[in-house]
Amino acid sequence: MAALLALAGCAAQMPQNLRTPAAALTPGDARAAPERHLGSTVRWGGTILAVRNTATETDVEILARALDAAGRPEPDAPTADAAAGRFIARFNGFLDPAQYPEGRQLTVTGVLAGVETRAVGEYPYRYPVVAATAKHLWPEPTAAADWPWYPDPWLGPPWPGLGPYPWYRDPWYRPWYW
């Protein structure tokens, strides 16, 4: 029973503010036929590209990524398919660009409000615009932990002169002594 509870505690859980049911709609679908999807509730996420503040609202430009079961954008998801692209999440009020820096992952829910054309370089790009009602800024990934080193009891003690460790730290390395 304890093992099941521990396993359930490790399972990814979607943040409460992102649990709004959303249509199976991608930014590519919205860009292709915006008039057909206006007013649809969406849950999209991705990598923040830019934050622009006006007097009354904030536009967050996001490079769309596929979402995992917890609603987190998958950083290694391909961006060349039809589901990918860019979109704008529009929030009422002010969001500090220092708290939403470029490269961080953000998931938003909201209503598809339309499509705006803005320049990406010199290319006119059509951005689906989401009137965001909820957001979740995901924590930055941490570096992989360095596993502690344990001596191999089959090769002898780990001090110099009495065994191959600490020079051979690969646990699968087994020198043959003849």
Explain this structure.
This protein has 178 residues and is mainly beta. The protein has two domains: 15-137, Nucleic acid-binding proteins (OB fold (Dihydrolipoamide Acetyltransferase, E2P)), CATH 2.40.50; 147-178, no CATH class. It has helices spanning 2-10, 27-32, 34-37; strands at 41-53, 57-65, 86-92, 105-120, 123-137. Strands 1-2-3-5-4 form a five-stranded mixed beta barrel. A hairpin with a 3-residue loop joins strand 1 (41-53) and strand 2 (57-65). The chain is globular, with a radius of gyration of 24 Å.
Name a few traits of the molecule:
OB fold (Dihydrolipoamide Acetyltransferase, E2P), 178 residues, mainly beta, 3 helices, 34% strand, five-stranded mixed barrel
- The helical percent reads 10-25%
Write down the CATH class of the largest domain: Mainly Beta
CATH fold-level label of the largest domain = OB fold (Dihydrolipoamide Acetyltransferase, E2P)
CATH architectural designation of the largest domain: Beta Barrel
Average pLDDT, to the nearest integer?
76
Briefly, what is this?
The chain has 178 residues and is mainly beta.
Topology:
Blueprint: H1 2-10, H2 27-32, H3 34-37, E1 41-53, E2 57-65, E3 86-92, E4 105-120, E5 123-137
Parallel strand pairs: 3-5
Antiparallel strand pairs: 1-2, 1-4, 2-3, 4-5
